[in-house]
Amino acid sequence: MGAIKHFLGNYSENFAAALILWPMASFVLTLPILAYLYHRDGRLRFGSFAGTYLTVLYVLGLGCFTLYPLPSGDAGPGITYGIPPQWAPLNFVNDIAKDGLRAVFQLAFNVVFFVPLGFIAGRLLRLRFASSVLIGLAVSALIETAQLTGLFGVYPYAYRCCDVDDIAANTLGAALGWLCSWLLGRVVPPGKLAEAEPTDRPGFVRRCVALWLDLVIVWLAAVVPYGVVALGLEAVGASALQLPGLTAAQTVDAVMGACAVVAFVLVELIIPWTHDGSTPGGAFVRMTFETHPRTTGYRALFYLVRTATLVATLFVWPWLVLPLLLFYLVKREMPYDLIP
To answer: Which of 175, 248, 270, 301 is most buried, by the most CB atoms less than 10 A from its CB?
Structure first.
């Protein structure tokens, strides 16, 4: 027991680093996580929600345990010399003969460490056995490559040992993790996936997630075209794009602003008008903002009021989100949903 405690104690700093990063990473990933869960399940379930955030912690732990601590100072592995790789399969047999229990613990840890990955692939991502094993193999190979190349060239030398036995042990762990998810599924079946039809009674959170996805699309539509043009001009040695009567900086603002307006109209008006009220983001989270059928005149008024509400809240009076939330909590619908 003391040997196990000593072995695990070597990784306490790595685990602490993962815990420190967890809240920040979870906050940054909240909207993508919600979008994924709405897309997959069509609703939020506590088990899926908690499981997804635990997955974030696991992924952070995976990085911290395998790549941290990083080289520091003026000398040492990764700085002035590298740790040679271990390419011989089944070399763990020699390690066990030489190091005894420590090598056994290291081998077992490499297997157990990837069991959660296989479980996540099988239970949370609903992947088949072969796909889950391939993910385990790919992730392990990526980690070992990072160790071999000094974190992909960040450091001049390898600061950890790239070991082919680790890849085999990790892949075995992913396979065992998938089998655990399969056995659990026989006792506690996973929840049903979302229905194909989008809901016309979306909650406030789902509406916000859909809007966030739409705004990401609008942002990309504003930034990417100008970026491509700017890079092309730079590649051929031409001067920066500059419209008549405007400085280069003003041209950037004008072009990106125009692209954003066009994209916003397309995403929030034209696409949903032709797709029964589903924006691109709404379609991903399986919702339509049209809560009931309307005649053409009332439908046009509905779109006008909704768009005006979005523009006012996003660009003029951000505090409007609070009365909108309160209204939804009382009425279970948005103000523009009252239009007949």
So the answer is: 175
Distance CA(340)–CA(327), nearest Å, equals 18
Backbone CA torsion sign across 76, 78, 83, 84: negative
pTM higher than the cut 0.85: no
| Token pair listed for 229 | 């043009």
Place of tokens 């499981």: 51
Burial class (CB in 10 A: 0-12, 13-18, 19+), 67: middle
Rounded (10°) angle between helices 248-265 and 204-235: 140
Q: Which residues pair with 81 in a beta bridge?
A: 77
Count, residues in the chain: 340
The residues near 304 (Cβ < 8 Å, ≥ 6 apart) are none
| Three-state secondary structure call for residue 88 | coil
Residue 86: strand pairing partners: 163
The model's pLDDT over 280-301, given as tens digits with 9 standing for 90+, comes to: 999 998 899 998 889 989 999 9
The two three-digit tokens of residue 267, written as one number: 């995403």
Q: Which two three-digit tokens encode residue 66?
A: 């395998």
Q: In 102-111, which positions are buried (b, 16+ CB within 10 angstroms) versus exposed (e)?
A: ebebbbebbb
- The full set of domain ranges for the chain reads 2-187, 204-338
Rounded CA-CA distance 156/150 in Å is: 6
Which positions ≥6 away from 54 have C-beta within 8 Å?
A: none
